[in-house]
Amino acid sequence: MRSARTAGLGRRVALLIVLGSLGSLGGATARADKPAAAPESKEAPPEPPRRSYNQARKAYESHDLAAAEKDFLTARDKSEADAEVRYRAAFNLALTYAQKADGLTKDKPQDALAALQQSAAWFRDAVHGRPEDPDARHNLELILRRIQQLADQLNQGQNTLEARLGRVIADERTLRDRVRGLLARVNQAGMAAEPLNFQSEFEDASTFQRTLLSDGGAILDLAGEQRDKIAQQPEAQRKDEDRGKLVQLQNLEHYLNLARGTMADVARLLRRLQGDKGHRQADVALLQLKRALEQLQDPVTVLKGLTADQTAVHAQTRGLDELRKGNLRLPVEGQQATVKAEAPPWLTAQLLADQQKDLQPRTGELLARLQAGVEYADKTPDKADAKSAGQPQDPREAAQKRRIIEAARQAVPLLQQGVTAMEQAFSALQGDQLTPAGQAQLAALTALLKALERFSGTRDLIELAYADQVQMVALLTPPGKPASPNDATKGATKDAKPDDKTAGAPELPAAVKDAMSKLSTAERAAMLKDSTARNQDRLSRLKGLFADELAALQAAPAAPAAQSAGGQGGGNDDQEKRAAEKQRYELAEQKRQQAAAAVDRLAALLAKGGPAALPAAEDGRKNLEELRRLFFSVVEHLKELLRNQTQTHDSTSSAQASRDEAEKQRKLGPLATAQSGHAELGKALAEALAAQADQAQNASEPQAKQAQKTLADAAEEVRKAHGAMTSAAQTLQQAEKQAQAMSFDLEPPIEQQKQ
């Protein structure tokens, strides 16, 4: 019935199976040399689908692809109840389009891509007609990989590993949510034990998962090519970023291979109608894909994620410790008495140990990347790259390279301390020793924060300095006296663009204020001393950053493309932009000097124990606030909020996937607090955007007024998001209370999180 034929797909050889001839409807073999009986009517009878199929097959073997395409289509369209013809015609149509693409790839790659997409569509049709046959599935995966390879060639390398992996993650998230919705319909129909009526939907989801599996394979191939290219270079010719990239790619391949194995399990489970297991495995695959993506992210992004996760685990450990010691009490309604607060069922030392265990290898991977970069930099002269290229080195790039290497050098021992502290915290949690675990977690968190600050750029350093300065003002403010009013949104500097205006000084959370009120004089003095020293260091580092930027702006720029072509407009625009940036950094340096003088004055007053420290702290805050306005962007905070909300959505979906109610309740525990935090930040950002819109409306500059509608529309969208976040937080809080007595459904907050 079948004969095998090989067809080349790019650099791969794919085994594409050409199906043999089909017998007539009566069972005899169709023969071209046997004349047909004379028709009884004047009109010729319609061509039987099996005859069309056999004609198409002969045309295919003769390389007449146009005739093969026509007759295979005829056979497929007229197959009706003949499942064999329908499957084989779809399969061979896919082969025909794949062969057509082979002839077009060199001269007409865009047409070849369209042919491959048609080939994939017909292979999907064949898979749908015969899900148990592995041939169509195998060939669909090969064709999808060829599509991705050709698309990459057409995009001329613009389709980066990070972007492609991000799309796979988004699609895997969609698949998981789709399976969860399918399970809900199955349960409503009362067919959870045997969901045969939903078989086609399960098969469609399985096919989609195999498509994503193929996409992951294409990414893996591309990563392997990049790794091999770097590995084949002589050691002396490798750049410092190549050394770090090699470690990144090796770690990426590890997690991507794990994810692909899990995705294959998902596809198999869905074909077997095992939706619950498939959903849980899809959640695991999503986590593994996100770990793979983390390997491609810059150190600052990875460190921010590690710091946020370690902060959350430390807070929960401290909370459980305080609850067990009986230090937290709740008021009795209608009475003045209090009762000992009990830990929620989900908050256990084992849960915290599992969370802590995940942080150590992630930190170790980042440490390995930084060590590789530093080791290579130590072996290579600083100016080797510029000389080897035969071009002068850009001042800004050279300064940035020096800062990154130095930051990595300082971060390596800090991360080593962090890994050691994480190991100690994990061991303590396994032994149910919460107090030493909390101390080790605090040491790990301190090391991560210090390492993160080594990589901080201009904006981050200003934000960190400003936050510490606000805290110092609060520490020095006498009890009962209100802190200085927040005037951060009362206008902006003349040179600031609407997007650069500050969202307002951060209000200290009530819990932080309460904790401060309980500090002893010695504890306050120690905190003030540490914060002042940190801000002195930050302001000193900002001086170097500003100087590097001014040096780059003052250097002679390269000739603009428009000028080289005889135009003048582009050059003038560039000069205006450089002049505006130069003015911004000159003003920033003035504000930095004023802030540094105020902080130095505060340090001297604290050393003497004088009573005039508060005015100096407040003076430093105001100067940092003005500096902050020059560089602040609401967009950065919106991006971070989007990332955090997506993470909470994934965690909520993961909790919903749990079949065991105890596990579901355990995963639910931290979600309400996280969601409430997102809602608070969303409200602050909406108010900041609205304030900026008002400022733009009242401004005299035409550019500011043009930005007014954009800012107002953005404020409205964030208000809508805040409403959905608040609703999700409230629903999660209700679910947490409900979980004590009965099962609960997380679909409502999941939908609110999507909004």
How would you explain this protein's 3D organization?
With 755 residues, this protein is mostly helical. Helices cover 73% and strands 3% of the residues. The chain is built from 25 helices and 4 strands. The strands form 2 sheets. It has a two-stranded antiparallel ribbon. It is globular. The protein starts with a strand and ends with a helix.
Describe how the helices and strands are arranged:
Blueprint (H helix, E strand, L loop, with lengths): L1 E8 L2 E8 L29 H13 L3 H13 L5 H22 L4 H21 L4 H21 L6 H28 L10 H33 L8 H32 L3 H20 L4 H27 L3 E3 L6 E3 L8 H31 L4 H6 L5 H36 L3 H21 L3 H19 L33 H8 L3 H34 L6 H4 L4 H40 L4 H19 L2 H24 L3 H8 L2 H28 L3 H37 L8 H8 L1
Antiparallel strand pairs: 1-2, 3-4
How many whole angstroms does the radius of gyration measure? 32 Å
Count of runs of 4 or more consecutive helical residues:
25
The span between the termini is 53 Å
Strand percentage lies at: under 5%
Helix content: over 70%
- How would you describe the oligomerization state of the chains in this entry? single chain
The helix-strand sequence is: EEHHHHHHHHHHEEHHHHHHHHHHHHHHH
Main pleated sheet: 2 strands, antiparallel
Work out the number of β strands: 4
- Content-based structural category: mainly alpha
Mean pLDDT: 77
**Would you identify the regions where 5 or more consecutive residues have pLDDT less than 50?**
1-16, 24-44, 383-391, 483-506, 559-570
Shape: globular
Major beta sheet, strand line-up: 1-2
